[in-house]
Design brief:
The structure holds two protein chains of two kinds. By secondary structure, chain A is mostly helical. Chain A folds into two domains: about 60 residues, no CATH class; about 240 residues, Orthogonal Bundle (MetI-like fold). The two termini of chain A are about 40 Å apart. Chain B has two domains: about 120 residues, no CATH class; about 150 residues, Orthogonal Bundle (MetI-like fold), CATH 1.10.3720.10. Helices cover about 75% and strands about 0% of the residues of chain B. Chain B has 14 helices and no strands. The chains are: A mainly alpha, B mainly alpha. Chains A and B meet through helix 1, helix 2, helix 3, helix 6 and helix 7 of A and helix 1, helix 2, helix 4, helix 5 and helix 6 of B.
């Protein structure tokens, strides 16, 4: 009788491999079928973008219109608005929600009182696990003109209440602060792990050399986590276009569309609410292509700058 | 000279104290919104609207909760969420562990291609509209199965489990093969028990997502009796706010208002998350660090 190990040493044909490990392939099967049915089959549905989709007859009963849906989207009045809003929201996110978790991570590791350090981590990590609906509900209720805590305090100070949710100028700050509250602690975890990896001897040597706190942070801590920061930055750039439409559709109002309507919410609205599936898919493809280009270029930059790439 | 670093300078001491104060301020800022919702939900609305309820409950009452539970559908929605979370988790773990295990075996034919087949979906997906039309093609609109089956695998979780299975030494498998065990038996009786920490991490990630998900249930489920809690909440709060502000005049003796009832529902919705939080905190960090290493 030959052992299993010996079996591997011999290069076998595919047929023998299947016979020997048939049940391993059986384990593979449900997952593969799932990916085909629920991840890859919808990708075939992307051709909807080239049809004047008939809701009742499905794709088979629809007329092929070539690039008309794309043309209609790009030349329409909503194109510039949605592209601009997507970029603006992404920039707000990059400017505020990217650096703050890094600062938070450094602050948490610098807290000498371990109890406070742990408490801060626990408190900042918590909001990530509260659902988008609940977070948006809290935001909407806190900002309500009559019963929201912000306006209650404004009234106590003798100021007029503001209906924050319908004023376009408040949308981006509200959305950004909300995302920050929800994710800062979660995003900080990766940096905290990187900070833990810095050699303590470097700090001890710096202390002997007479370097103060700020000098140590600037010359040891920051360079120590820089590779992680670069990697995370590139990952975020790749995902930048995909702003959180799930939260935006809960927060926006017709009066805030001029600043809040991004490509994905626009696609969602004209597809799911107006039934224009063809053009909605076209807008979705437009967004996905930008996202893919950014991921690919981020990967190339990552490979050159940090010598590590995602694949 | 060697003990030099034990002497803490004044500026350093000030820095340390400042950092501790900063930590406490951050903690308060993060937790206060939840704390406020909690105290307001137990207070009389007159005091809430007056701005008296900022630090503690005033005019304790349970009426906001009584009112919330007497509303049509809250119990049903809560039950539905528990159903979607628990049964959905079974779907998740069945589809994810089986495929992750098979992919962790180096002898698997087309292993690289199959892994790419999984990873590709992390970076590119069809988008909302084609995904919706796909469910429609399958006849799964307004079916509970759409939620349970349609979201059975998260590629990221699958990769985490796969890399965990890869860390189990091959010798375990070799020995079992010698004894004539099949792949199926090795998987269920050796690998599953050995991987409890990883399975706990991934289960928790799935369960949190199941509990919190609202977007697809909102689009796929059309009848009220099948809606999960998050969609129920969305309908009650977000759609309610689009309808304008309530104009009921509150008196000191009012025991609940639209707002305090909403706060009560929010608390009801996040309680399980708060109870599970110590476990979440313990296991999620492992998951994040594992995931980050694997890209």
């Amino acid at each position: 009788m030959r052992s299993h190990k010996e079996n591997y040493a011999v290069k076998r044909s595919l047929g023998t491999k299947f016979r020997r490990d048939w049940d391993l392939y059986l384990l593979l099967l449900p997952g593969v079928l799932w990916f085909l049915a629920f991840a890859y089959k919808p990708m075939l549905g992307l051709v909807t973008a080239f049809y004047d989709y008939n809701t009742f007859k499905g794709l088979a009963g629809s007329t092929f219109v070539g690039l008309d849906n794309f043309r209609e989207y790009v030349s329409g009045p909503d194109f510039l608005r949605t592209v601009k809003n997507t970029i603006m929201l992404a920039l707000w996110q990059m400017a505020i929600c990217f650096p703050i978790p890094i600062i938070l991570a450094i602050a948490i590791t610098e807290m000498k009182n371990k109890g406070i350090s742990k408490l801060t981590q626990t408190a900042t990590f918590l909001p990530h696990f509260i659902s988008t609906v609940v977070v948006c509900s809290i935001v909407i209720n806190f900002l309500s003109p009559s019963t929201g805590i912000f306006n209650i305090i404004r009234k106590q100070l003798g100021l007029d209440p503001i209906y924050f949710m319908v004023k376009p100028e408040f949308f981006r700050p509200i959305y950004t602060i909300m995302t920050l509250w929800q994710n800062a602690g979660f995003d900080a975890i990766v940096y905290i792990a990187a900070l833990m990896g810095i050699d303590m001897q470097l700090y001890e040597a710096a202390i002997v050399d007479g370097a103060g706190k700020w000098k140590r942070i600037l010359h040891i801590t920051v360079p120590g986590i820089l590779p992680t920061v670069v990697t995370m930055f590139i990952l975020k750039v790749g995902k930048m276009v995909k702003v959180g439409y799930e939260a935006i559709i809960l927060l926006y109002q017709p009066s805030t569309y001029p600043v809040a309507d991004v490509i994905s919410t626009y696609s969602y609205r004209i597809g799911m609410e107006n039934g224009n599936f063809g053009m909605a898919t076209a807008a979705g493809i437009f967004e996905a292509v930008i996202a893919l280009v950014m991921v690919l270029s981020a990967n190339v930059i990552s490979r050159r700058v940090t010598e590590n790439s995602l694949w | 000279m060697k003990k030099n670093h034990l002497i803490v300078s004044t500026s350093e001491r000030i820095f340390n104290i400042t950092m501790n104060i900063v930590g406490i301020i951050i903690t308060i800022v993060c937790l206060y919104p939840i704390y406020y919702v909690l105290i307001a939900s137990f207070s009389r609305p007159y005091y809430v609207d007056n701005g008296d309820v900022l630090f503690r409950i005033i005019g304790f009452t349970l009426d906001a909760y009584k009112r919330a539970f007497s509303r049509n559908g809250l119990f049903t929605a809560y039950g539905n969420t528990i159903f979607y979370t628990l049964v959905g988790l079974l779907f998740n773990m069945f589809f994810t562990t089986t495929m992750a295990y098979a992919l962790s075996k180096k002898r698997l034919a087309w292993r690289k291609a199959l892994t790419l087949f999984v990873v590709f979906t992390m970076w590119f997906n069809a988008g909302v509209i084609p995904t919706y039309l796909n469910f429609r093609d399958f006849g799964l609109i307004n079916s509970r199965l759409s939620i349970l089956l349609g979201f059975s695998i998260n590629a990221y979780n699958l990769i985490i489990l796969k890399s965990f299975f890869e860390q189990v030494p091959d010798s375990m498998e070799e020995a079992a093969f010698m004894d004539g065990a099949s792949n199926l038996r090795i998987f269920t009786q050796i690998y599953i028990p050995l991987s409890t920490p990883a399975l706990a991490t991934v289960s928790l990630m799935y369960a949190v997502n199941r509990w919190n998900s609202f977007f697809w249930p909102m689009n796929l489920i059309t009848s009220d009796e099948k809606l999960p809690l998050q969609v129920y909440l969305k309908k009650m709060i977000v759609d309610g706010f689009a309808g304008g502000e309530e104009s009921v005049i509150l008196t000191q003796s009012s025991t609940w208002s639209q707002t305090t009832m909403i706060y009560a529902v929010i608390i009801i919705a996040i309680i399980p998350m708060l109870i599970a939080y110590p476990f979440i905190q313990k296991y999620f960090k492992t998951g994040i660090t594992l995931g980050a290493n694997k890209g």
